[in-house]
Amino acid sequence: MLKTLFAALACGLVGSAAAAQACNGNSQLCGKTFDKVAFPTTHNSYAYGDNIAANQNVNIQAQLQAGIRGFMLDLHYLDSTNTSVPYLCHTLCLLLNDGPFATELQNIRTFMDNNANEVVAIFIENDGPFTAAQISQAFVQAGLDKYAYTPKAGAWPTLQTMIAQNKRLMVFTDAGADASVPWLAYDKDYVVQTPYSVAVGSSFGCSPLTTVRPLWVMNHFVYKNFSFAGSTVDVPASDSAATVNTRQSIVAQANACGAAGVFPNFITVDFFDVGALFQAVADINNVTYSSPATPQTAAATSAATLTSAAAPRALLRHAAPMAVLAAGALLGALA
What we know:
- The protein is an alpha/beta fold and 335 residues long.
- Helices cover 33% and strands 17% of the residues.
- It has helices at residues 2-20, 60-66, 101-114, 132-142, 159-164, 241-244, 247-259, 277-285, 298-306, 310-317, 321-331; strands spanning 39-42, 70-76, 87-89, 97-100, 120-126, 169-173, 184-186, 191-193, 215-219, 223-228, 231-236, 266-269.
- One of its GO terms (molecular function) is phosphoric diester hydrolase activity.
């Protein structure tokens, strides 16, 4: 009798725990497969702050705490004499430098260590380009490789499965992937993007840029023209975020994707903290909205302070802005 009672209690506790589990902040997402979940994602996630090339208002640590789960990161050589260590830079490191790639990965690892029910995706734009070994080294140095999921043929796992296996990080790169690092997925094998060059005032659609693949990046951000010294530069349009990032605007583009027979997985925006990204993503996932924000601990705050590459940013903020713009103009676009 006692054995039966204890067994029933144990089953009840397990069932209650499973029912109470929140995957990426919502228990309704746990049973969904990775390819059927929409993730709030930031474009040029590392490019933040008081800079004409910035696409975000706050750093990646703050984005994680707010509920962002997809990150677009651009890897560059620091300069022509430093080509072995990837840096997070926008267009060129003189213009916007967020510091070593591995340092930012440490911040993501700290978050994932402290939040065991969160699934995260990273998209690498490998502008170096760097080899798979060099990219992998940054993940190993940060201690983040332990979470990396290796894609397999067939159906994608559910978020709950990825969490249970503690393989909660999906990493894509547009160059440099090879079999030596099986978890570093070549994005052209898995992902298609909607157009990412949309001018202020233009409409968003869901036409693929390339052949249709299992996962979709829905780009939902705009650029504006900035004229300088006879040249025109495309820059992030922070003053349009309040209009672009509305629940209605984001869901309308997602509905266009749905009408085309595809599910948008990575809802990618600039200046995510303006507008209603998270409410829109809940609508796309067809789940009840609840705040995805996670508590920010003192340790996380300290880590953000120590690893935010403040020195390069401070230098840039006080640099002659016209010189910075001139460098951007030479390369055509900052957006």
